[in-house]
Write a structure and sequence with these properties.
This protein is mainly alpha-helical. It contains 10 helices and 5 strands; from the N terminus they run ααααββαααβαβαβα. A hairpin with a 4-residue loop joins strand 1 and strand 2. Helix 3 runs antiparallel to helix 10.
Length: 246
């Protein structure tokens, strides 16, 4: 799938929201503190807001460059180019998590049970406990449309999208394999870009490369990142729309 993000359009959209909230400061005197809090967040969020799209665009440029695939890694230049590809993938993942955490600040303005110092968090349905915003969201999902939406998004893509964050930050870089490695029925013409797969585990951690199901549970490719980027900005837009309903 070919997908691009227009950084200028994203910037303009955020600027329009910022202007709308700024106008409310003079129109809604009884809600001045509320809108001032929202305005302060939007006014300062531009780098974190744009970062996922920025790194995604850089990742796509490298992903489609055969010099970066790392199939041969014959010399220092190829190793460096391959490292740049991995850097942009990891930075995309990290910036997605960062924007999710910034969303918490907006949510905290409207929902009194949410702390601005909290993170987006996670939730274990089997244990019925979690951390951060997701704990509040699960408890409120049956009573609040926005919280129900958050839970739905968390279960369908966010939980997997943020999974590599701790590994990248604290432990190790994510290795790359190619889809033909674990799917021998897949034909790849290596004159075009191979299906590059980033793993949330190192091979020495006991991955059975021949077990397609096991690999796919910890695998991320370009199609996954496209989905995450699209849905992340839809979530941000819906959050701002919800916060504006004062």
């Amino acid at each position: 799938m070919n997908y691009t993000v227009n950084l200028t359009e994203l910037t303009n959209k955020l600027a329009d929201n910022e202007k709308y909230i700024k106008a409310k400061l003079t129109e809604k005197y009884d809600s001045f503190e509320y809108y001032l809090s929202v305005y302060a967040i939007l006014n300062n969020i531009y780098p974190t807001y744009l970062a996922p799209a920025y790194h995604f665009e850089k990742y796509c440029e490298l992903h489609d460059n055969p010099y970066c695939w790392g199939i041969f890694n014959k010399n220092i230049e190829e190793k460096q180019a391959h490292s740049f590809l991995r850097i942009e993938f990891q930075d995309t993942i990290l910036s997605i998590k960062a924007l999710l955490d910034r969303i918490v600040q907006l949510v905290a303005v409207k929902y009194k049970g949410v702390s601005r110092d909290s993170t987006f968090g996670r939730y274990d349905k089997e244990a019925n406990k979690g951390k951060g915003l997701m704990t509040f969201a699960y408890h409120m999902a049956d009573r609040d449309e926005y919280m129900a939406f958050l839970v739905s998004e968390y279960e369908s893509w966010i939980s997997k999208a943020v999974m590599p964050r701790d590994k990248i930050v604290h432990y190790n870089d994510l290795p790359i394999i190619y889809k033909t490695t674990f799917d021998p029925d897949l034909y790849i013409d290596f004159h075009s870009a191979p299906i590059i797969v980033h793993l949330n585990k190192n091979l020495r951690e006991g991955i059975d490369i021949e077990n397609t199901k096991q690999v796919e549970e910890i695998a991320y490719d370009k199609e996954n990142i496209i989905e995450y980027i699209q849905r992340l900005y839809k979530l941000f837009d819906f959050t701002v729309e919800t916060i504006m309903k004062k």
